[in-house]
Design brief:
The protein is an alpha/beta fold and 357 residues long. Helices cover 39% and strands 17% of the residues. The protein has one domain (2-356): Divalent-metal-dependent TIM barrel enzymes (TIM Barrel, Alpha-Beta Barrel). It starts with a strand and ends with a helix.
């Protein structure tokens, strides 16, 4: 198992790589090229430059999060083949630079969604929150403005500006596409990229939908154990895996996350895990993101780590989204302090379980 932390290049991160190097037990970063428009090929030279910067401070760049999937592929419209070709070339270039695991997602139009990026908690820290009724009352452009208005000036992963002008039109497009057709479009993409993953020894790790239910009438297909089974059966290769994000799946109280971890880790289909905790603030869909410590949220992180350990997990873990604490200014969810605390709490659980077993 390797513990890593997500980091954004090109001065887009408030955190110097050298600080990440000082977090005990962290071997590397999950990162991305930020200047390449969605759909274009990631050039080998740019990838190598980024890797060299990371390696120079004593960290590894074995995980990329994310190479985003162009909307034409998700829509299944003419022109998608060019973007799929570009995707395959990006995979080859990443593998050549030493990348072992590629996280991506198949959420249409927008990535993760929250109604508040800086909700103040009782202890004075701030966190990201999801309130369903507030959210569905917003128009997509109000949502975009609200997310950008409260991002503290930081570019947010999954909310690339080139997506905005098209957003309303894209959402309308999906209203006339059935969920089955959406699955077919994704299957077409998976059929193309999994053989490349084999050829260049890279593990694909699709991230579940966040939150794991439909909003704005968009198809959300990776939401629970059953849909993960279906996704993995699109291609039975071990290279076709998932990023098991406990917070995304855990937003649905119906999901038994330790059971999901045990099922798919033991099948060797989980190269990458995002560990974070959440607390439900209503009986149904509302939640806040909390500190990682089990007592702070509704997910039992001991059970998560135990499930990973007992299923012989040997992939990458990152402590996902943290709160903003100790006056830190940074990208919502991606401050250093709370994620470093989380990483070391999780490493402590791992050490204790290992020594006791
Ligand atoms: C989210 C996503 O889980 C997360 O950290 O912030 O942006 C996630 O990285 C992508 O959906 C993965 O493709
Ligand atoms: Mn995640």
């Amino acid at each position: 198992m390797k513990m890593i932390i997500r980091w954004f290049p090109d001065s887009a991160d408030s955190i110097p790589l050298e600080y990440i190097r000082q977090v005990p037990g962290v071997s590397g970063v999950a990162t991305c090229l930020m200047h390449i428009p969605v759909g274009e090929t990631w050039p080998l030279d740019d990838i190598n430059d980024l890797r060299d910067k990371i390696v120079a401070v004593g960290l590894e760049m074995e995980v990329i999060e994310s190479v985003n999937v162009h909307e034409s592929i998700k829509k299944g419209i003419p022109g998608r083949d060019r973007y799929i070709e570009n995707y395959m070339q990006s995979m080859r270039n990443l593998a050549q630079a030493g990348v072992k695991c590629l996280c991506y997602n198949v959420m249409p139009v927008m990535d993760w969604v929250r109604s508040n990026l800086a909700q103040v908690l009782a202890d004075g820290s701030t966190t990201m929150a999801y309130h369903h009724e507030t959210l569905i009352r917003l128009s997509p452009s109000d949502l975009t403005n609200s997310i950008h208005g409260s991002s503290g000036g930081f570019w947010l992963p999954g909310w690339e500006e080139e997506r905005f002008p098209q957003m309303e039109e894209d959402i309308r497009f999906y209203h006339s596409l059935s969920e089955e057709q959406y699955w077919e479009n994704i299957a077409y993409f998976i059929d193309a990229i999994v053989p490349v993953a084999h050829e260049c020894d890279i593990n694909l790790a699709v991230h579940p939908d966040d939150p794991p239910w439909s909003i704005f009438g968009l198809p959300k297909i990776i939401t629970d154990a059953q849909s993960i089974r279906r996704f993995l059966s699109l291609n039975d290769s071990n290279r076709n895996g998932i990023t098991l994000c406990t917070g995304s799946l855990g937003a649905s109280t119906k999901n038994d996350i330790p059971a999901i971890l045990r099922e798919f880790v033991s099948q060797q289909r989980v190269p990458f895990v995002h560990l974070r905790n959440i607390k439900h603030t209503s009986s149904d869909k509302d939640f806040i993101e909390t500190a990682h410590f089990s007592n702070c949220g509704d997910l039992d992180m001991f059970e998560m780590v135990l499930a990973l350990y007992e299923s012989n997990f040997d992939g990458y873990i990152r402590s996902d989204h943290g709160r903003m604490i100790w006056g830190e200014q940074g990208r919502p969810g991606y401050g250093l302090y709370d994620r470093a605390l989380g990483a070391n709490y999780l490493l402590g659980l791992w050490e204790a379980i290992k020594k006791l077993s």
